[in-house]
Design goal:
Layout (H helix, E strand, L loop, with lengths): L11 E6 L3 H12 L4 E5 L12 E2 L1 H9 L3 H4 L3 E3 L1 E6 L2 E6 L10 E3 L2 H14 L3 E4 L1 E8 L6 E8 L4 E11 L6 H5 L3 E2 L5 E10 L7 E5 L12 E7 L4 E9 L10 H11 L16 E6 L4 E2 L2 E2 L2 E3 L15 H20 L6 H8 L1 H23 L3 H11 L3 H11 L8 H18 L22
Parallel strand pairs: 1-2, 1-11, 2-8, 5-14, 11-20
Antiparallel strand pairs: 3-7, 4-7, 5-6, 9-10, 10-11, 12-18, 13-16, 13-17, 14-15, 15-16, 19-20
Length: 449
């Protein structure tokens, strides 16, 4: 078949599987551009979602660009991050980044995901809730994705056809697995758990990150704990562990949560009595460790592509960003859809991968190697305990880990990461070269347009 214009001519332009951050972001931008978009969401909004609920300036930028500034201001804002480790604490305000603000917000995913999905609907997208994408339909002759078999809450099945499909069904993407998306086990995997507690410090002006979390025996672990104030009487409390060492594989995250809560200072007044509900957890594929991300007629975005930042476990910002980036590529593909061959269409869709490489590759590669290195407890203690002695250094660490480094500041960021890499080689000599290779300079970009 030399031309694909006769496929799906009675179907939708785009089917998006999942209405989380990446799916709803993609739906918003495509609908705003005038395309016929249907989003299939297996849950009913509002719905719970395991997450830290903290929005960094990167997330805020994307939400503001979607016209949600006033809605954000109805929620608790915060100035920066309080780093706590080895008996010290430092309050680090958000730095100014390229086109980014200096305010973050704490918004539960219970509220946030519905907010963004509704914004996509306001701009023309159709949202079908309690509808599960069961399988993707492929053309028998061309192997192009042309539709989805959808199942509603009553078990009724329907075939929905479209020109292109966006896979946005999260970190445990069942649809992704069914079409051959796999995790590269050379990349780090995060394990996280979180719960809600009542606390008198629910309106604190800083989110808090504990960088020296320990197991119940007191051993330092490769991960961090957090306390994110929600401003409504509750705080989101959680802990994340990097599955980068055989020592921690299969570790019980409930024990991690119990150990972390027991280490938090008394001022937060966290206890079993203050717990609102049993904690929930999940796996976090990081560093674009899932692939392929592009196929014949489809693109994977957000957690379904492993887009989580290995430095800090942040996924929401990168969900919004990858959804937006995908929408730009899909927009181009749809505009040329009736004029191109199937192979040319695939070439257009592959631009998405190229854009991801340009924006994130070097940063995520360094992050992945760094978190692999800090799985060594002695190195973790060495880096953090020394860093906590200098507020200036930790301010730069915050910039790097939150991906808020400006273009003109890259040199300082590269120096800090290079120094950490040299230290890492003392404990792990076999680490691959990154910043120490002059031909492989770090790219740190803020996606602001």
């Amino acid at each position: 078949m030399s031309n694909i214009s006769d496929l799906n001519n009675s179907g939708r332009d785009v089917i998006i599987i999942g209405a989380g951050p990446s799916g709803s972001s993609c739906a918003f931008w495509l609908a705003k551009s005038g395309w016929d978009v249907v989003v299939l969401e297996k849950k009913q909004f509002p719905r719970e979602k395991t997450c830290g609920d903290g929005l960094t300036p990167r997330s805020v930028k994307q939400l503001e660009d979607m016209g949600l500034t006033n809605s954000l201001r109805e929620h608790h804002s915060y100035e920066g991050l309080r780093a706590v480790a080895f008996g010290k604490q430092l309050e680090l305000r958000w730095p100014k980044g390229d086109g980014l603000g200096t305010v973050g917000y704490c918004v539960t995913r219970y509220d946030l995901d519905q907010l963004v999905a509704n914004q996509a609907v306001k701009h023309g997208a159709e949202l079908r809730q309690k509808v599960t994408a069961e399988t993707i339909i492929f053309d028998e002759d061309t192997d192009k994705a042309i539709g989805v078999v959808a199942v509603d809450a009553y078990g009724n099945k329907q075939e929905i056809y479209s020109k292109l499909i966006i896979v946005a069904d999260g970190a445990n993407s069942r649809i992704g697995r069914s079409i051959g998306i796999e995790r590269d086990k050379n990349y780090p995997l995060g394990l996280a758990i979180r719960g809600y507690f009542y606390s008198p410090r629910h309106n604190d002006s800083f989110i808090e990150s504990h960088l020296d979390i320990r197991d119940l025996d007191g051993s330092v672990m490769p991960g961090y704990g957090w306390i994110f104030p929600l401003g409504d009487g509750r705080v989101n409390v959680g802990a994340g562990l990097l599955n980068t060492s055989n020592r921690w594989k299969g570790y019980n995250t409930n024990k991690l949560m119990d150990a972390f809560v027991s280490q938090i200072g008394p001022s937060w007044e966290l206890s079993t009595d203050a717990s609102i509900a049993a904690p929930t957890g999940g796996k976090l594929p990081m560093g674009f460790s899932l692939g392929p991300r592009v196929g014949n007629g489809w693109i994977a975005v957000g957690d379904a592509s492993g887009s989580i930042n290995p430095f800090n476990g942040e996924g929401i910002a990168y969900g919004y960003e990858t959804g937006r980036l995908a929408s730009g590529v899909v927009d181009e593909a749809l505009r040329l859809y009736d004029e191109v061959s199937e192979s040319q269409l695939i070439s257009i869709l592959k631009k998405y991968d190229q854009i991801l490489e340009s924006n994130y590759r070097d940063y995520y590669r360094v992050a992945s190697i760094f978190v692999e290195a800090i799985s060594h407890p002695k190195l973790l203690k060495f880096l953090i305990s020394n860093g906590m002695r200098s507020k200036t250094i930790m301010e730069w660490v915050l910039r790097i880990m939150a991906n808020l480094v400006r273009e003109e500041d890259k040199g300082i960021a590269e120096y800090i990461l290079s120094s950490a890499e040299h230290a890492a080689r003392i404990f792990k000599p076999g680490l691959p070269s990154t910043l120490t290779d002059s031909s492989n300079k770090l790219k740190i970009r803020s996606l602001t347009s």
